Amino acid sequence: MATPERVLRVAQKLVAYREQGHQVVAVVSAMGKSTDDLLALAHEVNPHPPARELDVLLTTGELVSMSILAMALASLGAKAKSFTGHQAGIVTTTRHNKAQISQIKADRLEQALAEDNIVVVAGFQGMTKSGDITTLGRGGSDTSAVALAAALKADLCEIYSDVEGVYTADPRVVPRAQKLDTISYDEMLELAASGSSVLQPRAVEFARNFNVTLCCRSAFCDKPGTTIKKEGDVVEQAIVSGIAYDDSEAKITIRGVPDKVGIAADVFSAIAKANINVDMIVQNISEHGFTDISFTAPAGDLERLRPVLDKQMAKLGAREYLLNEHITKLSLVGAGLRTNPGIAAKMFKVLSQNDINIEMISTSAIRISVIIDAGKSKVAQQALHTAFNLDSEQIFAEDNLSAEELAAKANKGR
User: Fold this and answer.
1) Mean pLDDT score of the chain, rounded to an integer?
2) What's the per-residue H, E or C state across 197-245?
């Protein structure tokens, strides 16, 4: 949706689906970088814009997209109606900037579909029961689409982006990454939560909870994408399905914390009250009645986190806290991790052979995550991808770069 030409291409795809006899609902995000431009504008007039007013401003990007797409559809002779999030019946919680969908009243959409319209809905937004406009956070259009698919009992929810599907790694970092034909909800949820930007974690969780079949596809070609569905429906289950990375987090270490009952609860309760999500947590062994607590949190929340930590330091009598924004969380994901011992040991050995130190470790049934120095991220991903036999014979080509140029670009830093 970045340019008028791309909007027309989207419109043509929607018309083609309608001509095949399908009822079609399109959920759109803002055009190009308009959300970033709106954020920049807000901070020019107020370094700390009120959350309510910021939501009102940011929703305008999707309003432009929905109306422009409806106009493009009309130019192709199709009947189309556009709806804002609240017109589409999306009711949310009251948490501005990161609201959650609590209910969908899809009566107006169902009526528009019954009238043979292609329905266009502004994603990323909704309205509280009291009438305040809210946004769903970055990538919220994915969640809007899946939620509407569930409410309308859609046969399929396709998520279009600039990539052809879900890859075993970021192909811009690992040129021999390969596209997956299918992947389970749980694996996709772990990949999304670990940094894969193809889908928003909440969208995958919504799809899993309401059994919505997803397909991630490219908006610029007709190649089949990646289907995301129940684990039992995935025919071949690899040991490791993919590698994800997240370089948007920071590591925080609180030094010299009194090792007493309830201390950790006090620290993380205060952080939670500031609406800051904490990811990985490690507490060291107590020595002389004191310990260190390390955890990771979004680097973008550090401005709000610092005063919380300052207050907790004074309250607890801790020695100091250290911040490190130059980190990457690297994750191996695969349903096969449940039944194949030695995966963690192999991962750690590969990292060690490439002189990469592990600062923190976290695991789930189908995921192993480590915190490493950000400068080692590319080398680590490429080495692990090869070690776990994920490399494709083909080299991914991006934009106007040749395969050789991309390979040379990716090999820098090996």
Assistant:
1) 89
2) CCCCHHHHHHHHHHCCCEEEEECCCCCCCEEEECHHHCCCCCCCCEEEE
